[in-house]
Amino acid sequence: MKEKYRLEMQAKIDGLEKQMHEIESQIKTGNDAAHKQDYENHLADFQSQKNALVSKLNEMSSSPEDAWHDHKKDAEGIYSNLAKYIGRIYAKYTGSGGTGMF
Q1: What is the pTM of this model?
Q2: CA neighbor of 43 nearest in space, from 18, 61, 20, 73
Q3: Per the structure, how many domains does the chain have?
Q4: Which H helix or E strand runs over 88?
């Protein structure tokens, strides 16, 4: 069960990474240096939060079967914050009202 959850969460992380690449594409089409720097800052924040989520998933994977639910709750909180963060950035750079993930 926890492996299935980990794989589902990895697919969600992959989706967020795809959105970051879409944002990067939007920025590369423009010549605004401020936007490019802003994106680099967002990318660093994204990577940091993503690394925390992956670390939590790794902890969950190595935890006993009866104890992984605490890690799952923490992972879901980190993911929720990360998805909201990406949604705001995505809307800012693509003009979209969001990602449709919320």
Answers
A1: 0.79
A2: 20
A3: 1
A4: helix 68-94
